[in-house]
Amino acid sequence: MKTDQDLFTGVLQDALQRGDSVWLRVQGASMRPWLCEGERIRIHPAKGRPIHRGDIVLFWRNPGHPILHRVLRVGRAAEGTIYECRGDAERGRPERVPAARVIGLAAMTGWGRMGYRLLQPVRRALNQLVSTRTWRPHHG
Q1: Nearest-angstrom CA–CA distance, 140 and 119
Q2: In this structure, are residues 103 and 15 in contact, taking their beta carbons and an 8 Å threshold?
Q3: Is 87 exposed, middle or buried (0-12, 13-18, 19+ CB in 10 A)?
Q4: pTM attached to this predicted model
Q5: Is residue 137 part of a domain?
Q6: What does the pLDDT read at residue 88?
């Protein structure tokens, strides 16, 4: 008998492969502040759609484990197109995701993508400032 996660990923993969869009609820905090836990987001099949820097994609990290992260860079490698992805709230090196593992593209307006590109450098600078300072409680 399949677990709920197995059933969910099977239905998700089948729907996107058929060309159907799906609605998902965001789980986790990796995409804050752009996407919050519990928020609904529409995912279109990635096949045949252009994917650009700033887009949010759904990909398989490993079988049965879909991840929703932002594309930071689009590049080419011997095996084809590679997307460097990371959650908006995460730090560190982006994950290199081959195009074959990308199954969905979050519905986003051009304005949403442009807003992300304009605000991302400011958000990154603020994150760096906050993370480099050591917080010490004031003892009075």
Answers
A1: 38
A2: no
A3: buried
A4: 0.75
A5: no
A6: 86
